Design the sequence.
């Protein structure tokens, strides 16, 4: 490398430092603190200089590195290797994954914390798969998916607490309600183009949340609904001391009582629900309606001229996606036994969309990888509570910048005109 | 009647703030065809910079007009840095990529900015003592006295001045011509020797500066800010941009005014709790019935 290059990159780094100073100076450097009457400023220049120094150093290293090699390739080679591995061995990968998921609760290192994280990841995988029908297959960007999740959770909670019906009756009802809301929203808005649709669905998600907060009579407002019945194992509740005339799970199977039984049951419940979603998606892709979704995603005008009704076709995708969102919602309600509008903010929608898009739209395996990756990142940063959302947003930007089509970028058409020519 | 006029005045004030943010959305959409989801958070950063500088200058005891001018310039400068950096980091590498990629990247950027401010400035709301007091009173003989505060006059006048400068910049200068040329055809503009990257950067800088002015007005008008204000204000300003016709600059201002008015009248006459629902419902209704907005050009899809 020539001397001129080094001086050039040095100047460039100093410029970066100047910008970084302007960025971090006021917001990080001058922290506003309320004291008694009014606000006061506490300077934190140390942090600012650290950040600026890091920016200068980072920029300098990147400059030197990019002067040496033509491209900064680590990230893209890594992800293309992952995608080629999963591409070749998709079936093995899926089977190993499912087997691992099935034995996971009984592995020696699995404790309560791991189970909770696993249940959370599986919930997001299920939501991701449900949204994948809408975003990945039909190509409709839905930023308000959490609305259906909320509708599912609230309808489950309201039906279960009002009528006392069991989980297995409430679950399909919640799905039906969510699908109904999907149709209600979808019918007017589905003729809109990509990013307009995104904003309208976002608005719908917010409307649902505001209604949940303000409609005290039904939803109990911001306080939420408590005492949602827990699911039972085909009629056997997970209680230490069952009510009169009831047999609880541990008594029936003659086990010692443990709270883990319920957790493990919940784990398998969400696993089965998620796998049903996946199975359904894989099957419906091969039906005419699934083909029509993918065709619409690729070229709407061509579809119209071939006689596919875009609105109805999109509506089915929307409703089915919403239904799975509703199922996941009722699972969420029964797991938490408490729901409030706070669980259904826009950020949840953003996470689910991020999982679908980062995984590579339309890829079922991608959703799994992205859920594990994103939820894993936020879990790793759990001790640094406040920084985890920064890490999460940063990961979204980075993956998009380096890998705009998602982790598993290759998107094979499900059907080819002349057999399987490669 | 008096109540109506009061709501009208409030609505126009609020509409000015939304209009200034909406310009940032509509300009970016016009030039690179993406929804800059982080724009609402740029507005929030502008509000924070303004708040911090108000506190600093408030201690020096300088006269109010000078403080206002200084804070205005400082907020514009620092917030423009944010707009510029966000574009360079998150959007520029994605130019020419498929349609949803920049939207997701912008979503990520929005999350980053929100949490960054939450971490560095704290999650609590930041109250500020009012700088302006008093106002003009009308209809003194009737039951309901209509008050137009000096602050409201300041906000509306400042908006009109900025809009004047901005319109001049876009219609009369080389920069504005370059910008409009980029909107029409980026490849051709580049062939004619215009630095497209620079023009796009400047678009972001102008949009962010206007958003920061809106942020400063927001601090003065409401007196309370937190790290989350960017989300709702951003959505409403986007609604305004769509209502006026996205890509159209006078449309953004008109849309901002309409959204401001709809929100205040809804809050005044229908229901205060559901005032945010009003903005979203308007958005949905507008997109269904006039997808091109009032002053937008129809969007023809070609095969």
Sequence:
């Amino acid at each position: 490398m020539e001397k001129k290059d080094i001086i050039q990159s040095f100047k460039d780094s100093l410029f970066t430092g100047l910008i970084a100073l302007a960025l971090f100076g006021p917001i990080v450097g001058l922290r506003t603190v309320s004291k008694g009457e009014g606000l006061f400023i506490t300077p934190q220049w140390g942090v600012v200089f650290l950040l600026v120094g890091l920016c200068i150093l980072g920029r300098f290293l990147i400059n030197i590195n990019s002067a040496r090699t033509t491209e900064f390739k680590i990230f893209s080679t890594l992800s293309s290797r992952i995608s080629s591995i999963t591409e070749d061995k998709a079936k093995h990968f899926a089977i190993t994954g499912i087997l691992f998921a099935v034995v996971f609760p009984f592995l020696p290192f699995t404790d309560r914390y791991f189970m909770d994280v696993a249940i959370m990841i599986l919930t997001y995988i299920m939501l991701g798969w449900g949204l994948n029908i809408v975003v990945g297959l039909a190509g409709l960007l839905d930023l308000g998916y959490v609305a259906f999740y909320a509708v599912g959770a609230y309808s489950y909670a309201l039906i279960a607490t009002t009528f006392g019906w069991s989980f297995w009756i409430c679950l399909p009802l919640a799905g039906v309600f969510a699908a109904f809301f999907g149709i209600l929203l979808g019918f007017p808005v589905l003729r809109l183009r990509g990013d307009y649709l995104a904003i309208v669905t976002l608005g719908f998600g917010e409307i649902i949340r505001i209604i949940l907060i303000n409609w005290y009579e039904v939803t109990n407002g911001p306080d939420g609904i408590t005492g949602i019945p827990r699911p039972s194992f085909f009629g056997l509740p997970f209680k230490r001391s069952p009510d009169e005339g009831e047999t609880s799970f541990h008594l029936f199977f003659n086990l010692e009582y443990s709270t883990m039984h319920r957790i493990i049951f919940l784990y398998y419940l969400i696993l089965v629900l998620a796998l049903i979603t996946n199975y359904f998606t894989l099957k419906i892709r091969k039906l005419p309606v699934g083909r029509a979704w993918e065709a619409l995603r690729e070229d709407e005008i061509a579809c119209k001229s071939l006689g596919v009704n875009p609105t109805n076709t999109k509506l089915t995708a929307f409703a089915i996606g919403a239904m799975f969102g509703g199922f996941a919602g009722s699972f969420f309600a029964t797991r938490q036994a408490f729901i409030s509008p706070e669980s259904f903010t826009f950020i949840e929608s953003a996470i689910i969309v991020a999982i679908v898009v980062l995984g590579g739209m339309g890829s079922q395996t991608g959703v799994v990888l992205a859920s594990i990756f994103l939820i894993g990142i936020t879990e790793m940063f759990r001790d640094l509570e406040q920084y985890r959302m920064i890490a999460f947003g940063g990961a979204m930007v980075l993956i998009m910048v380096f890998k705009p089509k998602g982790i598993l970028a290759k998107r094979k058409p499900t059907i080819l005109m002349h057999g399987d020519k490669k | 009647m008096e109540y109506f006029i009061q709501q009208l005045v409030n609505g126009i004030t609020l509409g000015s703030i939304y209009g200034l943010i909406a310009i940032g959305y509509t300009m970016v959409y016009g030039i690179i065809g993406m929804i800059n989801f982080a724009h609402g958070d740029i507005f929030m950063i502008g509000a924070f910079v303004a708040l911090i500088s108000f506190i600093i200058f408030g201690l020096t005891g300088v006269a109010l007009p000078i403080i206002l001018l200084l804070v205005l310039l400082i907020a514009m400068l620092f917030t423009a840095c944010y707009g510029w950096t966000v574009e360079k980091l998150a959007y520029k590498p994605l130019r020419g990529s498929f349609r949803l990629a920049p939207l997701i990247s912008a979503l990520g950027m929005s999350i980053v900015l929100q949490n960054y401010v939450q971490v560095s400035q704290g999650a609590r709301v930041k109250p500020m003592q009012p700088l302006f007091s008093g106002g003009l009173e009308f209809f003194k003989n009737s039951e309901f006295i209509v008050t137009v505060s000096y602050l409201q006059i300041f906000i509306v006048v400042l908006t009109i001045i900025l809009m004047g400068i901005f319109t001049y910049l876009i219609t009369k200068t080389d920069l504005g011509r370059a910008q409009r040329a980029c909107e029409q055809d980026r490849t051709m503009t580049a062939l004619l020797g215009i630095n497209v990257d620079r023009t796009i950067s400047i678009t972001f800088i102008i949009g962010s500066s206007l958003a920061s002015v809106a942020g400063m007005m927001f601090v003065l008008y409401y007196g309370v800010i937190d790290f989350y204000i960017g989300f709702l204000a951003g959505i409403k300003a986007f609604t305004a941009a769509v209502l006026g016709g996205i890509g159209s600059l006078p449309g953004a201002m008109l849309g901002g005014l309409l959204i401001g008015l709809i929100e205040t009248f809804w809050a005044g006459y229908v229901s205060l709790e559901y005032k945010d629902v009003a903005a979203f419902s308007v958005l949905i209704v507008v997109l269904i019935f006039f997808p091109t907005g009032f002053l937008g050009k129809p969007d023809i899809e070609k095969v």
Observations:
- Residues 21-227 of chain B form one domain.
- Residues 27 and 247 of chain B are 6 Å apart (CA to CA).
